Amino acid sequence: MIYYACDIPEDLFYDVERDVWIRFDGDFAVLGMTDVAQTRCGKFAALSFREIGKKVAQGKALVTVESAKWVGAFPAPFSCEIVETNEAGFAKNILLANKEPYTAGWLVRVRPIDLENERGHLVTGMEATEKYQARIQELKINCLRCID
Questions:
Q1: Which of these, 18, 77, 123, 127, is most buried using a 10 Å CB contact count?
Q2: β-pair type (13-15, 123-124)
Q3: What is the distance between the alpha carbons of residues 19 and 16, in angstroms, rounded to a whole number?
Q4: Residue 49: in which H helix or E strand, if any?
């Protein structure tokens, strides 16, 4: 679904408040910053990844993101252990999340620790679309992607 040029794929899960998308894959999950979040952030300038094997509590930083507009945490949507980062991808092209937030621009792959108790706020499909439409209107966002 595209809304105000913001892409909201209906096959992903979202932590709307934290602007995190989640693609579950067996016992693991790939996480990234939503199109809405990368637009609000602006062009990435630097990323500081936590180390592989680190256990991170829900809401705590998995990655620190620096852009021309903002410095802040990319938060964990649920408690997890980092099993892989996309540090090498961002080393080759710092704008990966600005160009392809849902594919090449993923940030971390994690193993959820307490998903059953911490997944109640995650939404997908039409519910995610409706929540993001309201958020986009409230924040007056019109998504833009970096191009080559």
A1: 77
A2: antiparallel
A3: 5
A4: strand 44-49
* List of domains in the chain: 2-139 (2.40.50.100)
* pLDDT single digits (tens) 52-94: 999 999 999 999 999 988 899 999 999 999 999 999 999 999 9
The reported pTM is: 0.91
Q: How far is it, in rounded angstroms, from Cα 97 to Cα 78?
A: 21
**Measured between alpha carbons, how far is 18 from 37 in angstroms, rounded to an integer?**
9
40 φ, ψ to 5°? Answer: -65, -35
**What is the helix (H) or strand (E) element at residue 139, kind and residue range?**
helix 125-139
CA dihedral 21, 83, 76, 121 (to 10 degrees): 60
